[in-house]
Design brief:
The structure is a homodimer of 98-residue chains. Chain A has one domain: Orthogonal Bundle (434 Repressor (Amino-terminal Domain)). Chain A is an all-alpha fold and 98 residues long. Chain A contains five helices and no strands. The longest helix of chain A has 18 residues. At the A-B interface, helix 1, helix 2, helix 4 and helix 5 of A face helix 1, helix 2, helix 4 and helix 5 of B. The structure holds a DNA duplex (30 and 30 nucleotides).
DNA sequence: ACGAGTGTAACGCATGGGGTTACAATAAAT
DNA sequence: ATTTATTGTAACCCCATGCGTTACACTCGT
């Protein structure tokens, strides 16, 4: 990964809220969270929690997995920016099919 | 989802550590974490963090994504056990392709 | 000028990752 | 039978983060 993956909050804002003409205040009410919580999420100040993913999936009839996948990519990218260097590879070449 | 997805710690223990004959103490040293941290992980007492996923991927030459995917399934399943009920569906049928 | 919507700071609370130290229990080796 | 290694876990620490409330200042459109 070269550049930071798209934050799910941005997608939610651009692809869901804006097309529906929903304000942050109204969307927060419908999702059952505080205005602050939603604002920080769509402004990429906070991560998408599993709970929030479920709320979004319920409100928009989409899969929570797809939203969490976006978040996971962001989280992994951020973690890889401070990747640990003190990891000693395990002896045998672990070839497990996944 | 009916039953709880497999915890990545269990997979790591059964499919990686055991085949390699690695003890928790040694694996923890190689991963660069404390023995407590690894013990709680493989005993499914704690979640897999992105940092830990990177450590495992470096040590075993596997993808961090695959490990995080397991964790995500568990997290989503657990969150769905206390799914919020105060979510009001958004007006228009949101049909966005993902 | 006014109200709606917004970003955000300052709090509080609860959870969770990660560390260290220490103890008890088990398993293995002598 | 007595060491030794390995382990689970408790108690404690620090720090980050999700979520809430309240409050303030800003930017709009009317």
């Amino acid at each position: 990964m070269i550049r930071k993956p798209t934050h799910p909050g941005n997608v939610f804002l651009e692809d869901v809220m804006k097309p529906l003409g929903l304000t942050i205040t109204d969307a927060a009410r419908m999702l059952g969270v505080s205005r602050k919580t939603l604002s920080e999420f769509v402004n990429e100040k906070s991560a998408l929690s599993p709970q929030m993913a479920i709320r979004i999936s319920k409100a928009t009839n989409t899969s929570a997995e797809s939203w969490l996948n976006m978040q996971q990519k962001v989280a992994l990218w951020e973690a890889s920016q401070h990747a640990p260097t003190n990891v000693i590879p395990f002896p045998q070449p672990t070839a497990l099919e996944m």
